[in-house]
Amino acid sequence: MTIKNSLMLALNKRMLLVYWIGFISGLPLMLTGSILQAWFASENVSLTSIGLITLVGLPYTYKFLWAPVLDKYHLPISKCTHRRKAWMILCQFILAVIVFVMSFLSPTNHLLLIALLAISIAVFSATQDMAIDAYRTEYLRADERGMGSAAFIFAYRLATLVAGGVGLILADQLGWHIYFLGMSILMLLGVLIAYCLPSTTEKKDVSSGFFNIYINPFKAFLTRKFAVWILLFIIFYKFGDAFTQSLGTAFFLRELHLTLSQVGVLFKTVGFFSTILGAYLGGFLLPTLGLYRALLIFGVLQAFANLAFVALALYGAIPWLVIFSVMLELGASGMATVALVAYLMALCDIRYTAAQLALFTAVMTVGRIGAGPLASAVVLYWGWAVMFTLGFIISLPMLGLLPKLKATIPDC
Predict the structure, then answer these.
(1) 240 and 166: one domain?
(2) 183 inside domain
(3) Whole-Å CA distances, 227 to 48, 209, 224, 311, 404
(4) Which of 285, 307, 293 is nearest to 393 (CA)?
(5) What is the pTM of this model?
(6) Is the distance from CB of 406 to CB of 292 less than 8 angstroms?
(7) How many independent structural domains does the chain possess?
(8) Which domain holds residue 105?
(9) CA geometry: angle 308, 145, 131, nearest 5 deg
(10) Apex 45 CA angle, 44 and 49, nearest 5
């Protein structure tokens, strides 16, 4: 695919819809994380309460538990005959209402109520994410999945930047009431966007019974050939990357002695644009390389990016090396993420898209959860250089699984 064709693909009408749904998907995330912490901290809520409120994000991890409901049931929303759109419309509307209500509350006087509303945001946001993931999997053609993943990542990150960075400035200048009112208006706009989306081809599971509704999506995947190997690949394909990034902030602050501002610029600016550029580069290259070669090449690049951090650990905070390392690491991570997401979309049975994608993304978190404690233990006993070298080494074995899984990887 030529550069011209890639640019036309990235900006065509079908891809613009992916930008829109990526944006509405990313908006609620900050409201269960950093924005909630900032709001509580600015109102002098106790540190214990702020620590406990971080648990409201758990529904994002366990969303696969109710994902089969989205595949089976169609909500009776007027004039909406598409079940993915119906779920998006409902979730986005409820999110807008919850955020509107929060604009009239104060953490000092309504701490428990805000905590319950924040949990509700996480539940409906996670549900909306599943509907959106299923929709774009069914909407995008095989040759559009790489670029579609890049477009979605960009819009999702942009939404978190609007809700987080720009939102904090708005809250500081105009107050939290105006911030939450503005967010609720943006979410109501998301309802309109979801309503105007074109319908896609759907294939519904015709089985009945509560047990079958929950078992069939996972049974359909687990009974296929190489299912266990596929799950292992999903867990460990980005494990080395997660291993390296898990202590990145601590490494820059404690080992390289950078300031908070310098680290903020690295991750919020350099890191943001590196991830986006990497994702787009992966999306441009994926149709030409094919999914199998993209997974292999991007995986190798992701592994070797760890070695730049080994150089930092050995030679210290050389300015150009710091910037190069962050750009290489997060750029390669963005490329590998695009390839992996395209693979996950290709694996889905169209009858169970929401449930199977939720399962795959939940499995992906297993590696990220285990990476941090393991990395900290390695640093404690052997130092940073060994930790980053180990991140490189453990990235390679899963690439050896690719030839075995080649039959499960379609050309695109």
Answers:
(1) no
(2) yes
(3) 42, 25, 6, 38, 12
(4) 307
(5) 0.79
(6) yes
(7) 2
(8) 3-202
(9) 110
(10) 155
Is residue 372 within 8 A of residue 247, CB to CB? The reply is yes
- The alpha helices in 103-166, defined as continuous H runs, are 111-139, 145-161
SS3 content of the chain, % helix, strand, coil (to 5): 80, 0, 20
Same domain, 69 and 190: yes
Residues 6+ apart with CB under 8 A from 152: 18, 19, 21, 22, 25, 136
Q: Give dist(CA 221, CA 408) in Å, integer.
A: 12
Q: Which of 77, 210, 55 is nearest to 131 (CA)?
A: 77
Query: 10 Å Cβ neighbour count for 345?
Result: 24
**pLDDT profile of the chain (412 residues), mean per 10:** 61 81 87 77 71 73 83 69 83 94 86 87 91 87 81 86 77 85 90 83 63 77 85 86 76 78 73 86 85 91 89 85 87 90 85 83 73 78 87 85 85 58
Quick check: 378 and 308 in contact, CB under 8 A? no
Tokens of 286: 């994926």
Q: What whole-number distance in Å separates Cα of residue 121 and Cα of residue 257?
A: 37
> Max CA-CA distance within the chain?
63
